[in-house]
Fold Methyltransferase domain-containing protein.
Amino acid sequence: MKASDYKTEVAAAFDRAAGTYDRLGVEFFGPMGRRLVERVAPAPGHRVLDVGCGSGACLFPAAARVGPAGRVVGIDIAPGMVETARAEAARRGVGNVEARVMDGERVDFPAASFDVVIGSYSLIFLPDVRGALRRYAQVLVPGGRIGFTSPQFRTGTFPFLPPVFTELIPNDLLRSLPEQWRPEALQRRFNSWLEGPADLRATMEAAGFVDADVHDEAVPLVAATGEVWVDWSHTHGMRLMWDHLTADDAAALRARLIKALDEMRDGAGPLVIDTPVRFVTAQTPPVR
C-alpha cells in the first residue's frame, strides 16, 4: 500500500469516528493525554503543537498549563476530528486553542514556532515518522521539548492493545484482513523502531534531538462493561481492523470479546485493564 493510500484510509477511519471518538464512557485517552502533558511540562506562555489532536485529550490540558499568555495549536489529518476539537474549545470557552486540518508529516510552520511538540498515539501512524520528527525539530526553538506516547509493542503480542487481547482475538480470523493490517505486518512496521528503547533513542537522535528518555508505565483503561469497550473500539485506531472484517466475523469477534471482558470484571464493577504505555520525551539542542 502506498503511503498516500495508507494515510487516506487512516484519515477516513478517524473522520467517520469523529462524532463518537473517546466519548462512549471509556477512560483511557484522556488520562494518557494528561499524563503526557505532565511529563513534557509546558510552562505558562509556551507555544505548543499537538500533532494528531483528535478531540483534545492533550490539547486542553496543555492549554490550561500555558495559560492565556500561551497558545496551543492542534493539527489532525481528519477534518471531522478538527471540527470536534473546535466545538469542544468553544463549549469550554478556551481562547488559547486553535485546531487546523494538517498532515502531521508535512507540518507547515516557520522554524522555531513552538516551545513544545506533543502527540499521543498519533506520531506512530505516520508512514514517514523519521522525516516528520526531523521537521518537528525544525519548528521547535533551541531547547524545545517533544513528547509522544505509543503502545508498548512486544513481538508476539497483538499490536496496539493490552497483552490480554493477544489471546482474545483469534489469529485465523485476522487472516481475512488486508495484508497491511495483519498483526505480523503491523509488528514489522512499528516494532522495528518502537519496541527497543535503544532503537527509539537512536531514531530521536538521528532526527536532531538530544536527551531522549523512554519511560514505560501502565495507564488504567476503564469501561463500564465489555460491550461498552467493544463499542468504543470502533471509535479509534482499532476501527481500521473492524472495517475490514466480514459482517459474520465482526459479529463473532464482538460476542467473544464482550463475554471475555465481562468475565474480567469484579462483579458489577467496571472493566479495568492496566494498559502498558510508552512515553518518549526529548529536546532540541540548546543554544550554546
